[in-house]
Model the fold of this input.
Amino acid sequence: MTLVHSGASAVIPTVPFIAVVGQSFGSEQEWVNRATRALTSHPEYNNTAHSKGKGWQGHHFTALCFDQAGNRMRNGGDFMRATREGTYPVWWVWPDQINDLLRARTAVEGPSVGTSNASEPKTLPTNGDSQ
Done:
């Protein structure tokens, strides 16, 4: 499937990319039903909306959401656009997961991050999972 957005053409992968298993929304309705709980409650740091004064907590620590075309999802309008353009599932990642995900991907694919075989599932282990 090819997606045309803002005058540019983006290829949507046949196998959806989800960075961390369990951290995705399959539809706009699922986002409506789950976003408040899922995106404000880090599995380790609990409620991220209020500063606790130390570590990865507070308003600066928010999940980063992306659709299958690589668009950053910041508000409801972005999720509505994903519905119109068919770019679900939308996935999210917490800032403290990024380093481990990049390291795991480099270990699997080698140093040239960004290339992958589209026929293989594109998920990476969650924090603490061993390979």
Remarks:
- Residues 1-7, 115-121, 127-131 have pLDDT under 50 and may be disordered.
